[in-house]
Amino acid sequence: MACALLPRLLLLTALAAPSHGHHHGPTSRLRYSRFLDPSNAVFLRWDFDLEAEIITFELQVRTAGWVGLGVRGRYSSVGSDLVVGGVLPDGSVYFSDQHLVDENTLEEDGSQDAELLGLTEDSAYTTMRFSRPFRSCDPHDWDITSDTMRVLAAYGLNDTLMLDQERTFVKSIFLLQMVHPDDLNVPEDTIIHDLEITDFLIPEDDTTYACTFLPLPIVNKKHHIFKFEPKLVYHNETMVHHILVYACGNASVLPTGISDCYGADPAFSLCSQVVVGWAVGGTSYQFPDDVGVSIGTPLDPQWIRLEIHYSNFHNLPGVYDSSGIRMYYTAQLRKYDMGVLQLGFFTFPIHFIPPGAESFLSYGLCKTEKFEEMNGAPMPDIQVYGYLLHTHLAGRALKAVQYRNGTQLRTICKDDSYDFNLQETRDLPRRVEIKLGDELLIECHYQTLDRDSLTFGGPSTINEMCLVFLFYYPRNNISSCMGYPDIIYVAHELGEEASDSMEGMMAMNNVEWTPESIKKAEKACKEAQQMVIIKTIDETVENTTGWIPEIIPSPRGPCLESIGGKVEPQDKIPAGFRAAPAALSGSGPATLRCLSLVALLFGQGALSWLLAIL
Questions:
Q1: What is residue 219's predicted lDDT score, i.e. its pLDDT?
Q2: What is the pTM of this model?
């Protein structure tokens, strides 16, 4: 179906000045890149200026037709924004900021917020480069945020703007990556060490947690692990859901062999301090240049527990696996020893999520007032630099919020558009300081419209989790700090009898789940007293209690007024808006809004193009 821009394209054919094959804007390197389609015909590069809140995209597609790039929602393409452009047979270009009014129809935005920086076509590719603000004042434009973004790409075989599902692709990407691996130091003396399960026969069960205990590298002096990556064996389908490496206390007596992590032998669940973690969709991760995992000193762990979660939903027989984690370490020491703190809702069946829920919030509280006592030594402030978020299939959003003296300080990290298939370690834009006595609250948002029975917390993919892993320095002995609500109170609020936690948990099966009872359960879980469980690397456990504080939503920042077109009145309130800046100077990736569209077009002698779009 042709879009509303087609008549304008005919006008452009007659009026637009040829481009003569020249680029229309900066050609500086864009640091990040990703293929967006299975056949590797659609390639995206991007970079951004965090202070100016401008992002630049370059889309290269194996076609001689039009190309388009934008952002869409989780469930539907309707309402997606899509910037489209191409080069006509006579060499003139067309470019427009549009949105989808239905699955097949494009409509031009009243406010044109994308700024063309280059549009070329050669014998193999059409390449379009443009910039746009993180948040424009156009309600048809999706904000670019630190959440997972569902990037939409489409193209045609000619210059007729028709959407074809076979040439439309959606990929979840974390666009605002703070650190690129190329910006980090790789020591010349790097040594590689693999932690893996060898020739393990994956059971024909839906879910398997396989654990084994392995030694860390034996070194005669202190070294730092500075990078890790998954070591995966290809199967007909992805069976490895996640891999975790836990540090063991040196006093631990460890079993041998491979067994169920949480089965009949409790020894295979020993060691609870996460060192590194990978989950489906993630890639390698390199720590910042000033931090690393310390090995080789008497205070460092000598053994680890390797945990691999397999999902064999098709119950395939005879599949062997040798997956694990590859670690890179060096004798060139970093400034700080790093650690990982696990936060969230304690993973066991007291965590429940009703069926048929459009939205259900769960909370896990951490109180740090006992950290120094449990650490066994004076403990400096915790400096958080990165994080990993984790739920299972019903998870839609997570956040970690910090409180001090009863006052909300900040949201440490969040993802309001969480994707189970993209779980990766991410860097914070700025490091966050946690002081002893602070409270940390994890909120997880679930949706279970596709389920007709309760979902309980547990290890299986069809169970749920609510976890946030904070990467920090300097390392201490605290491995986890998790919370859960008083389930007896929750049962009573729902009109059910319960005298202990087991009865409270079982009582949830007696509730008739309606939108009203779902909201009542959510409210009761939030108002119930939380039991907080704190654990150290040596398996010491302390309990305390607390109450869930209110979360004050973070206000959206001001929108950026477009360089032309209308600004919707409601977008000036309450956050306000700011005028578009004059053309920024410089040529590096930090100054990506280098040339306004009007200046660019006059610079190319394209007065007829300018007249055509006015």
A1: 94
A2: 0.84
